[in-house]
Amino acid sequence: MQFHFEKTLEKRYEPQVTVTNETPAWLMICLESIKDWIGQSPRIFCKSEEPYLQFGYEVLTFPVAEFAQIFGPLIYAINQAWPVQVFGMGSQDELVELSFTKEGTAPTIQQKNVSGIPCAELRDLYFCVKFPDPLAADCMFRLLDAVEKKLGISPGGITKDGLFSLDACRCIGACGLAPVMMINNDVYGRLTPDQVGPILDMYK
After folding, report:
1. pTM of the predicted model, to two decimals?
2. What is the pLDDT of residue 4?
3. What average pLDDT does the structure give for the chain?
4. Residues whose CB falls within 8 Å of the CB of residue 41, separated by 6 or more in sequence, listed in order
């Protein structure tokens, strides 16, 4: 998504987390913790044949400095491989783009907007992540969505009956069969969304 902003404001921040040398896919999974920080799950959008996955959180307000300290290092690391755009709404419905850079070794947050007025708080939070190809974005979205709808939980959750827990992981040693789902010690490869429900039913 391309927008033209008149002003760019920069400020250094002190990160509260350390990001190790992980794959961008694993870092995206770590970014799921935003839903716990905000207190709601995101709305996820993906258009077929486009490499973009979009996440939206409709919140009344969130502190920009705290957001940068907790999630800035993750977003910066993901952006080194997969371009990430982050947006929020400022006062008077002004669109503000947040980006994370480094000046030497100092983490820096940039606010880009038209007015040139820095925002301590924003409302609504939107991410747009560009994957290597359209199939990668579409696959991640549709398979995880199918499992979440079937079980009624998000990654990190446990079903009410305690029968299932859901985790997104970086590797189970079956890259040649991707996309893959593992239940106990059973591996299901080259998975499609319509196969998810029947497979899970086998374990009830």
Report:
1. 0.73
2. 64
3. 87
4. 35, 154
Integer CA distances (angstroms), 121 to 90, 91, 113, 114, 201, in order: 7, 9, 14, 16, 45
Burial 87-105 (b: 16+ CB within 10 A, else e): bbbbeeeebbbbbbeeeee
What Rg do the C-alpha atoms of the chain give, in angstroms?
18
Residue 28 has, within 13 A of its CA and on its CB side, a CA count of: 25
The C-alpha atoms of residue 165 and residue 183 are separated, in whole angstroms, by 10
